Model the fold of this input.
Amino acid sequence: MNSAPADTPCGTDFRRATAGEHLYAFEHSIKRLEALTNALVSHLRGLQVLLSDDTFYPLPAMAIARSIAEVSSSTVWTLRQGLSSDERAARSYAALFAMLEKGIESGGAEEAPRTRALREELAARLESGRPKVQIIRRVKDDVTLDDVAQVRVGKAGAKTRFQYTQRLRDEIPIISGLYDHMSAATHGGHAAVSASFDTPASYARGIGHIALESTKAWSLAVHTWLGVTPAQSWNEADLQNLRNSIPAADRTEFEAELAAQREAQREGS
Done:
């Protein structure tokens, strides 16, 4: 990061931060990126432990695969290629307020008031600083509440609340369908849980696909922000073996779906 050229997204954000513009956003982006990266590595190592066992356990592996997708999609959302510096700042502030709101919601009698005070102090500093940040509070039944719903930096805005299902569709659409399919099993749906024991091979392929595409999306987002071209981090032969393990009757449809999703991603970028 220290050697990122000035004309890269990271260099632009760093230059603005050193000039006193959106310093909180930049500092939080760095801390959040470090935390998300450590989480991604930890989940991947946990998945590796499960897949190295003599017995394949699809249910816990699915839960980890979904976590990998969620962590990666949050990273992509923050640093997605093509965002302006104001858009990245708005998203960083939104993620910071979302963290504070969660702390208020889950905090006890002592912790919640302290977190609430931190939220108000941050909001006051951002609204009175230069460049000004607009803090938009949530409105329910025509009543303005205290919790932050949206952050605006210039013309760029970012909401604090989101659903991972929609975030996956927006940020890593190539795995959003698989992510949705695994939801029922992960949350204890009877039919999906039962099916996981009948067709473990299909779940293994889905888990492998999610882990691969999530890691690729994370890598592209981070390296693009830093202005670095990433090296290939996966084994193409392993990827082809994964696809070849799909029954011939389903393989053509699967490959066509992947091709359509990749084309949609290229058009979107």
